[in-house]
Structures
1.
Amino acid sequence: MAKDLGMAVLMDFYGGLLTDKRYEVLDMYYNQDMSLAEIASELEISRQGARDAIKHGERQLSELEEKLGLAARFKNIQKRISKINALLDNGGGRDEIKSILKEIEKFV
């Protein structure tokens, strides 16, 4: 099972909406980099139970992002802020910075 590290980002945004147990399993898998066997042993569940909990948690996080889009909005704002910083570092145009700031206001 290949790890989608974007899930760790989604956990930052939506982890508080998961059950404690589901969050714990996802945290062990993504943040602590534990294997399914290690998670199963730690929680005294089967390896398949650990895998199922991860899959259900991933699905829940993906559905929340699909509905709310907070992580995508955050990433978009970050990209624009980086562009502003680059412009400022290079003595960029004031008008272009104002334009980017107006774009950011749409996301806030």
Note: The CA atoms of residues 42 and 95 lie 56 Å apart.
2.
Amino acid sequence: MELEQLRSDMVAAMKARDKDRKDAVSSLVSAVKKAAIDEGCRENVPAELVDRVIIKELKTAKEQLDTCPDNREDLRAEYQKRYDVIAQYAPRMMSQEEVQEYIQGHFEELLATGNKGQVMKAVMGELKGKADGKVINETVARLCSQ
């Protein structure tokens, strides 16, 4: 995802008077800008950074939704709308089967050692942002215990 695409979607949401969508996309744009400044790439923001920020914001929105009290339907609805909008921009993550195939294809020698720490270090370097960390951890643990 490119930062310019987020900006144009934010403008489109403003023109359509879609407040919920505008707020969610606006928060994504702000988070991307902040991350770009922190990493020193303010002028030329890479798509990888945008994707990483979107994933982080998606996790934050999911936590808000999960921790929302059941008796606060108004808040729950607001958090759900925000989560739904951010989820539309999130990059597709690899499934557990895809992660397993990738690990078995690229890290066969490391898997043979059975050292989960070494395997995780190597795999996370390559799959960070492409697959969920929990899925990677579970898959590596299962493959190392075989």
Note: The helical segments are 3-15, 19-39, 47-67, 73-89, 96-106, 108-113, 116-127, 133-145.
3.
Amino acid sequence: MLVHSAGGAIAGGLLELAPEAWHAAFDVHVHAVFHLCRAAVPGMKERKEGAIVLISSVAGIRGLHFNLAYQVVKGALPQFARALARELANDNIRVNCIAPGIIRTRFHDAMTPEQRKHNLENRIPLHREGTPEQVASLIAEVATNDYITGETFTIDGGLTMRIA
């Protein structure tokens, strides 16, 4: 099994974002997935089974203000998972993607108390952040259920279904 989970916001819009930051975002979030899959898939093919889980973000589905590179690289992962799932299905290798929302981690520690309050009250219908354990539980399910492939699952307390 391979799980790719890389994070790190890349702030900036089109005109503010340095080209080096744009390329670095692709190196960490997209190129790394390509190279890791190339390394892992031959062994999975030999065993005639395998599971690959890519961690994206709801930002790649819904967008995120002033984070162009992060949105684009996280949006690439669901498509990468679908394309690779189709390519590897005959080898019994499943590829899926998980797109977390606001999860209680250091990644979201940069939010101000006002931003956190706004998110909980107005953006997340369940009015709470998710936990790393909840994401890990979904990863385990997706990785072990042998009838799921080519899918992207959101785990976001309803964030992507709400507009606020």
Note: The longest strand covers residues 93-100.
4.
Amino acid sequence: MIDFQPLELRHRAMIEAVVRPSERRNCDFSFMNLFSWRFHYDTEVALHEGWLLFRFKADGHLAYQLPLGGSDYRTVLDALLDDALRLGHPFLMLGVCEQELPAVESALPDHYFATDQRDYADYLYRREALATLSGKRLQAKRNFANRFERLYPDYEIVPLGPERFAECLRLETEWAKAKTITDSAGYADESRSMEAVFAHWTELDAQGIALLVDGRVVAFSYGTPINYDTFDVCMEKADTAYEGAYAAVCRAFARAVPTRFVYLNREEDLGIEGLRRAKLSYHPERLMRKFAIMAKHPFGV
């Protein structure tokens, strides 16, 4: 039996010891994400026979992440199948990246359906590309960022810290009110996630910046490393009344992220049309496609 426990701050070292050296670049393994959204997913974690395991709820369904830590999935996937059966739930594994599918197929031959979940694909960018916004493809973004700097020549870029958190939450609230399509529950959850990050900023190894105009926060961004070469941009917000603020904060944060990180993961678009257009407009290095894995015979029938 797998000893799953509710995810807490004390699990950070255990999780990052497995994730940081790995090749997993998807935002699902960012501890900041895992911790700050645990209220939404009832996230649980276990270290089982050398494997790092996550169990959670997705729209009320019991689900698992692809195990991390070993090379042969056969035994550990059998254990997860047994866990789901014991709890009376059909087996569901989410966030399985495309390159992992052959290994899952080898472990569970002809045992599952894999469904592409485009809305949850991660957008992976070269850090250097966003730090410079150079080249013809990013010319429009570069123009926006440069326009912000021309319009607000006295702007400041400062490290994000506790003295700015209240302003960031204010900006988040104003941003949510300005949206034409209201999703009050979704925005409330996002604010709750932000509050969790701000309450545990140091413990989460959070890094961020704020853009100030006349001493006022007009944009901010923060995140944390996922693995050894990929940094997760967990949050980015800007006041659109300040022209070019989004492109400016994107470039500024890419410059602030340590250069040892090759990639920036700017997470999913969740199927939101405007967000998808915005993420594609920065020309990602690649989309990390994710799949849902469902057993063909979930109860062994």
Note: The two ends are 22 Å apart (CA to CA).
